[in-house]
Amino acid sequence: MALTADSTIYELLQQKPEAAEVLFKFGMGCVGCAIAKGETIKEAAAAHGVPLGEMLSALQIEA
Q: What is the pTM of this model?
């Protein structure tokens, strides 16, 4: 399954464990967060005030 902004943080970390480092750089502690299983990348970016396009680019995910 291709990752998108609508993929959950859990799906992201399952497919790309190295993404944890990118999330940490944006100040996001999603790895240990219980909400990560249901929160999308888009929702997480909004909740943390991170520009979605910038995060997707860093994660190498197409918008």
A: 0.87
